[in-house]
Amino acid sequence: MATDLYPSYPDVLQEFFGDNLIHQLCLLHLNKRIVNDFPKKTTFKQELTKYWLLNIFYNRDAEIEILKDKAEEEERVIKEKSGEEYKEWLKKEMKTFKKFLHEKKKERQRQKQNLKRPYFNSLQIFNTLIDEIDSFDKAIHKKITLKNKRN
Description:
Elements lengths: L1 E2 L5 H9 L6 E2 L1 H10 L7 H11 L6 H20 L2 H29 L7 H13 L6 H13 L1
Parallel strand pairs: 1-2
């Protein structure tokens, strides 16, 4: 049974079904939670981290490749330009990235593709993130650690 993240579900389901139930969390709600952990206006570095986390459940490899390049470029721009110039650059480049996302979505819809990953593939990606946990911001580090302790 798949449920949203309401905290009382596991206990209620355990009481009702006992060991005859496999309970999993809804991927839509897990993805929403990841997205909500980030500000609305992100940097490319933050966006890359967000997509690494989203990549656990759905194949976001194409987006990650672009974001890696943009995050590296962002570091150079921050060093070379003033704050206002950086903000303008970020706004322009983020708009280009959002357009890319929209085009990818339309392409997937036309081809009737699903990005969902098989469970064991998701588990491998999650374990890779655990191995690289020290490279994440403290808030993300904490969330990944908590999720890992629950499993």
